Amino acid sequence: MKLVAGNANKTLANDISKYLKIPLTDCLLKRFSDGEIYVEIHENVRGEDVFVIQPTSYPANDNLMELLIIIDALRRSSARRITAVMPYFGYARQDRKSAPRTPISAKLVSNLITTSGVNRVLTLDLHAGQIQGFFDIPTDNLSAAPVMVRDISEHYDKDKVTIVSPDAGGVVRARNVAGRIGAPLAIVDKRRPRAGISEVMNIIGEVEGQSCILIDDIVDSGGTLVNAAKALHEAGAKEVSAYITHGVLSKGSTERIGASKLKELVVTDSIRETEAVRKTKNIRIMSIAHLIGEAIGRTSTEQSVSSLFD
Ligand code: R5P
């Protein structure tokens, strides 16, 4: 078995490598002066089961292209099986035609990854479960829920917690966490008048006096979260925190979250943390390296991956 890391999240790749006690494969990843990517694998991979760790996070296009080129290099080096390990799958939010004459980019990107010669995909909390079907190759969609539940149990009094979905689309995800800790569920009725802008319409469920914990797959601008936190406070919540799998946290989000009523935002390290994230006092990173590492190990030894979530 071999582990190859792209440039997108070297820290996570190193942590996975430590968990599995397998060193990262020596390879050269460089840019030519015109921006083209060049890859050289410096170890023999003939007949190997290779896992390429590369979330397609910001800069999404560069990281995606790097992933495709690494896979091509491995395929041409006679690797036996190649798994794209994408803890964050960029373009996932473009999973349907949102208006006439628009693309379904999530499907296009899935096709590109499959065509590059990968045999399997390992990912985490896809924006919509159905995206799994965009890949015509075996795809494992891991869930950060068990890691979140463990962390919530360590930091909160479970009897006073209400789990909240920040929109209708996230109800299944939030209900899963609520079920695991035996907490009630509330739902924020969110409206998105246009991309990047969100408005809270109503709150469904009892939140008064409760420690509300918002569960979501992505925090990007932070608008959804900050608006939901404000609305929950107005509805009488004692405090509001959030557990979100992917901290996209684009420009301006950390200031917005830092100045908000959120007690704490916990994100996983599926995306490399920036300096701005590190400096924001109410953002904490929770590692999923052991979860991904365990899933890689089980895939390699042909053991069940789903039983990780029982
Ligand atoms: C939307 O359906 C997603 O689950 C997230 O709620 C959304 O991507 C968060 O975006 P933002 O932080 O920009 O409001």
Largest sheet: 7 strands, mixed
Strand segment tally: 14
Reported by name, the CATH topology of the largest domain is: Rossmann fold
CATH class of the largest domain: Alpha Beta
Give the strand order, joined by hyphens, for the main sheet.
Answer: 10-9-8-11-12-13-14
Regions with little confidence, pLDDT below 50 for 5+ residues: none
Amount of helix = 25-40%
Radius of gyration, CA atoms, in whole angstroms: 20 Å
How would you portray this structure in words?
The protein has 310 residues and is α/β, with parallel strands linked by helices. It has two domains: 2-142 and 290-309, Rossmann fold (3-Layer(aba) Sandwich), CATH 3.40.50.2020; 145-287, 3-Layer(aba) Sandwich (Rossmann fold), CATH 3.40.50. It contains nine helices and 14 strands. The chain has helices at residues 10-20, 60-75, 105-115, 145-155, 171-181, 223-234, 253-258, 275-279, 289-300; strands at 2-5, 27-31, 37-41, 49-53, 81-86, 120-124, 139-142, 161-165, 185-194, 197-204, 211-219, 239-247, 264-268, 283-286. Strands 10-9-8-11-12-13-14 form a seven-stranded mixed sheet, with helices on both faces. Strands 1-4-5-6-7 form a five-stranded parallel sheet, sandwiched between helices. It has a two-stranded antiparallel sheet with strand order 2-3. It is globular, with a radius of gyration of 20 Å. The model has no long low-confidence stretch (mean pLDDT 96). The protein binds ribose-5-phosphate. Residues 166-167, 169-170, 198, 216-225 line the site of ribose-5-phosphate (R5P).
